[in-house]
Design brief:
Elements: E1 2-3, E2 6-7, E3 11-14, E4 17-21, E5 32-35, H1 38-46, H2 53-70, H3 76-88, H4 95-108, H5 112-137, E6 145-149, H6 166-173, E7 178-183, H7 190-201, E8 206-209, H8 214-219, E9 225-228, E10 232-234, E11 239-242, H9 245-254, E12 259-262, E13 268-269, H10 286-289, E14 290-294, E15 300-304, E16 317-320, E17 327-330, E18 333-335, H11 342-348
Parallel strand pairs: 6-7, 6-9, 7-8, 9-12, 10-13, 12-17
Antiparallel strand pairs: 1-2, 3-4, 4-5, 10-11, 11-16, 14-15, 17-18
The structure holds 5-S-methyl-1-O-phosphono-5-thio-D-ribulose.
5-S-methyl-1-O-phosphono-5-thio-D-ribulose binds at residues 51-53, 151-153, 157, 163, 190, 228-231, 241-242, 316.
Length: 352
């Protein structure tokens, strides 16, 4: 996608340096973070310099490839195993992280060059799949559609295009009139900061809404559909996504609004039978207690926004049971979880 007229991917690798858009600084500053070692890339994943299911996957694949290029000859195997553990420990919920680590780890058993090639391929596939999700998903969007989305599942959350936002970009490019309700998505504000920034760059009509406003707009008949992304989808269709997704799904059912989950098949975890088996990341309470933003002079600052002395709970994801999901929008097409068994589809489509 374009930023200031220049084409960017969210994350890329040149030689063994990984470059990524620093998402902690957006929308206030546009800075490219450079990571020269696998350990530094781990730091970028865990501190959310890079975030979002597909972007985390690409980062993890690149980190694994960096580890292969860094590993000392006399301690090669132990170094690689340690790196694999370190990268796996960065964030627990996004399936794409484990998918990418596994692919690059296996490729690296052949040669270091194979590891690098595989990591680059994973990033390319992520961009391709997101584009295809857009093409399939746009068929669901008619002219004058009002869409609610939660968190950021745009191009910043992937290598390019994104998932939930990809059909919206394509419908807009096709000349259809769309309006997007952007949930602010506390505590990290991925909606208010990142989705809103992306939509503004693309001149797509949108407004940020408080996280607790969805029922108001839905009850007035002002939302036509919900599209969200996914961090991990169990083989029964239960879907982990950013905290707050479950309540939007329950609301959508109450008000008979279609609720779509857009995700590449690399996010489906066929070894996970049920949503209850998905590990949910608990993040630092500081993310709830403090917010970062700019003051009137444009200086970036961290502010305490809660009553001092109270602790906070900060689960980063929740699980939406399959019964609330109208369909999955994947790179292979639109999957109706009621008409088709996800396990069987994945077998047929060779995406296990
Ligand atoms: O910002 P994160 O990495 O904690 O959140 C992950 C996500 O981006 C969302 O859950 C998103 O909706 C899933 S699709 C990238």
């Amino acid at each position: 996608m374009k930023v200031h007229g220049e084409e960017y991917r969210t994350i890329w690798m040149e030689d063994s340096t990984v470059f990524m858009i620093d998402q902690n600084l957006l929308p206030f500053e546009f800075v490219i973070y450079e990571s020269k070692t696998y350990f530094d890339t781990c730091f970028a994943i865990s501190t959310m310099i890079v975030r979002g299911a597909g972007a985390i996957g690409a980062a993890a694949g690149f980190a694994m490839a960096q580890a292969y290029t860094e590993a000392p000859k006399d301690d090669f195997d132990d170094f690689i195993l340690q790196a694999k553990d370190d990268i796996s420990a960065t964030r627990p919920t996004a399936q794409n992280l484990f998918y990418a680590i596994d692919r690059v780890y296996r490729a690296g058993k052949k040669s270091v060059e194979d590891a690098v090639k595989e990591a680059l391929l994973i990033a390319d596939e992520d961009a391709r799949d997101s584009r295809l999700i857009g093409q399939h998903g746009m068929t669901l969007i008619e002219d004058n559609t009002r869409i609610l989305t939660h968190c950021n599942a745009g191009w910043l959350a992937f290598v390019n295009y994104g998932t939930a936002l990809s059909p919206i970009y394509m419908a807009h490019k096709d000349g259809r009139n769309v309006f997007v309700y952007v949930d602010e998505t506390r505590p990290r504000g991925q909606g208010a900061r990142l989705t809103a920034w992306e939509l503004k760059n693309e001149n797509i009509d949108h407004k940020i809404i408080p996280d607790n406003a969805a029922a108001y707009f839905m009850s007035r008949g002002e939302v036509d559909m919900v599209i969200v992304g996914a961090d991990r989808i169990a083989s029964n269709g239960d879907t982990a996504n950013k905290i707050g997704t479950l309540e939007k799904a329950i609301l959508a059912k109450e008000f008979s609004i279609p609720f779509y989950v857009a995700a590449p098949t690399s996010t489906f975890d066929m070894t996970c039978k049920h949503g209850n088996d998905i590990e949910i990341e608990n993040r630092n309470e500081e993310e709830v207690l403090y917010q970062t933003g700019t003051d009137k002079n444009g200086n970036l600052n961290k502010f305490l926004v809660c009553s001092p002395g109270s602790g906070a709970l900060n689960p980063a994801f929740d699980v939406t049971p399959k019964k609330y999901i109208t369909a999955f929008i994947t790179e292979k097409g639109i999957i109706n979880p009621f008409a088709q068994s996800i396990k069987r589809i994945c077998k047929e489509l060779n995406c296990e």
